[in-house]
Amino acid sequence: MVELAEAIAERFSALRAEGHEPRDMVVLLGRMTNAAVYAAALREEGFDCAITGGSEFAQTLEARLVGKLLFALLNPADTQALYAVLESPLFALSADELLALSTVQDVEGVLSSCGIDVGLDALARKETTKEGSRLALAARALSRAESVLGMKRPSRIVTQILAESGMFFRLESCGVDGMAQAADLLKAVRLVASLEESGKGLAEVARSYEAALGGMKEPPGILTPSEKNFVQIMTIHASKGLEFPLVALADFDTNARARGNALVTEQICGTVYASLAPSTDSRVRLPGTTWKYVRSESEEADSEDDRIAQGPFRYREALLQQGKGRELAEQRRKFYVGATRASEACILTLTERQNANREIHADISEAFFADDAFPADESLVEYGARGRMRFTRLVVKAEGDAPEEEFVEGVEAVA
Question: Which of 13, 74, 353, 369 could staple 404 via S-S, CB 3.0–4.6 A?
Answer without folding.
Answer: 353
